[in-house]
Every structure is written in structure tokens, then in C-alpha cells.
Amino acid sequence: MANQVVNDAVRAQIGTETAPRTYDVERGAIRRFAEAIGDPNPVFNDEPLARESRFGGMIAPPTFCRSLGRDLPEVKLDLAEFHVLDGGSEWEYFKPIRPGDRITTVSKIADIRENAGRLGPMVFIVVEHRYTNQHDQLCVLQRMTIIRY
Amino acid sequence: MAEQIYFEDIEVGHEIRELEKDPTTQQLVKYAGASGDFYQIHYDKDFALANKLPGVILHGALKNAFLGQLVTDFAGPLGWLKRLAVQYRGMDVPGVKLFCRGRVVKKYVEHADHLVDCEIWIENAKGEKTTPGSATVLLPSRAR
Known about the structure:
The complex is a heterodimer of chains A (149) and B (144). With 149 residues, chain A is an alpha+beta fold. Chain A has a domain at 8-25 and 67-148: Hotdog Thioesterase (Thiol Ester Dehydrase, Chain A, Roll), CATH 3.10.129. Helices cover 15% and strands 36% of the residues of chain A. Chain B is of the alpha+beta class and 144 residues long. Chain B has a domain at 12-22 and 60-138: Hotdog Thioesterase (Thiol Ester Dehydrase, Chain A, Roll). Chain B has three helices and five strands, in the order βαααββββ. In chain B, strand 3 (98-110) and strand 4 form a beta hairpin. The relative contact order of chain B is 0.25. At the A-B interface, helix 2 and strand 2 of A face helix 1, helix 3 and strand 2 of B.
């Protein structure tokens, strides 16, 4: 079946990136994030105990990057009234994020595709967030699927 | 520090130690504050009802975080989570217990890294898997 919403003009938005934004990672913010999850792991909470880990000190929990403000690239779609769902995420981890790090985020539209749903066309937008530290090392890559219908 | 599991301790089929969660509305507010996700469906009941929801619902990202806790507990202080993927298939609401579970589906060595792939998920008391996912964890080896 031909796409109803995702045509060539819509797909031309793939590759669009947001301007980079930079954030300071505060130790207190890491602890508050772990506390909100209910995660008592010393690696995320306790500097002296975390020194015994492979990281040699406290690091941020795996989904901490959610708390770093990210600009979502705007995706223009011809859907009169739409609903938005967070479909899920895939994360790849390359370097730990530590208290005191300066993390720069850039978000890119990685894919736009369409499936026929029960309620009409469903558009799946994959946004790739890259989180890079002050040493220019890619720490985390997150691919988030946003569903519009 | 927590106890450490080693690559040699694991066989395919190994079940990850279950993590039980009992999310409350208070936890949703704390998570909203800590994550900066202030979408009202997670703390404003009237707003949620007006959006045809059964009431406030859990942030998908909070469930993602629960599964992150499951696998970083499994990895231990000497392990490293390399990859984590989750899909939000069903809604979960505060006041209902959730069970985070997983099992090892593959064990291999790649570029001298000792890795295990895991199937992970969150299920509710009815046994419905609302949040399936997968993870790759690097474990320490006794051989080194």
C-alpha cells in the first residue's frame, strides 16, 4: 500500500540536525535521578564505594541522559490532528558519564516511515541523540522512536 | 560493593535476579522532576482522564530506567552495560507492582570482550509483558 503521509518531501527531512547544546553534569543531579528511579546502586550514589568499581568513581545511570535537555528536531507532517507516543529507545554506551562532565547533545532525524494502523496511518520517527563529553568522546548514542498517528 | 558475577558463572538460559518495583504517584512526581519530563499525563489525574487514559500512567522512560537498573545490577561493579533497548507496548499505572525480569540468550567473546546478550522485560501481576527489551552486558572474566 502506498504511503499516505510519508512522501518524498517528508522523507527529505531525514538527516536534519538540531544545534548542539551543552550541559554540566552535577553530582547532585545524578543522585536525584537514581533516587527517583529507586536505584540504590553505589556506583550512582556513593563516591567512596564507587571508587571500587571499574569506573573508579561515581557515574550516571544508563538513562540519565533523558534529563539533559535535548531539542527535538521538528518533523513536518500532513496529519490534521495527531497523537504522539514514545515508542521506546535503543541505547549504546561507549564511555561513562561522570559528575563534572560537560555533555554536548545533538539530535538528528534518522528515519521517518509509515505503517498502516487500525486508526489510520502511523508515522514512526526515529530520532538519534548523540551525547559527547568535553574530551570529544562519544559517550552515549540513543535512538528514540516517536509514533505519531 | 555488591557481589560480582563473572562470565564463567553464566550459561545461556541464566535468569537475571528479578527486580520488583512498586511505583507510586509520588515516584512519578520525583521522576518528572529528576528527568524534566513534565507531560501532565504522569501526575495530573484530571488531565490524564481528559486524554482518555485510565488515570495517570508511568513514564515510558521510567520503565526504561527500571530495566537499566535490572541490567546494571546484573553487570555488577566490574561489568559494563553496552547496549539497552526497550519498547513501550502497554501502559502501566501507579499502585500496581511491576516485575523486571530477564534471561541470558547468548554468550560470546568479541574483540577480547566477554559479552552476554539478554532478553529483558517488565511484566505486571497479570503476567502481561508491557515493556519488552534486550541488553548486551560486558562481564569480567576469571581468566584474566
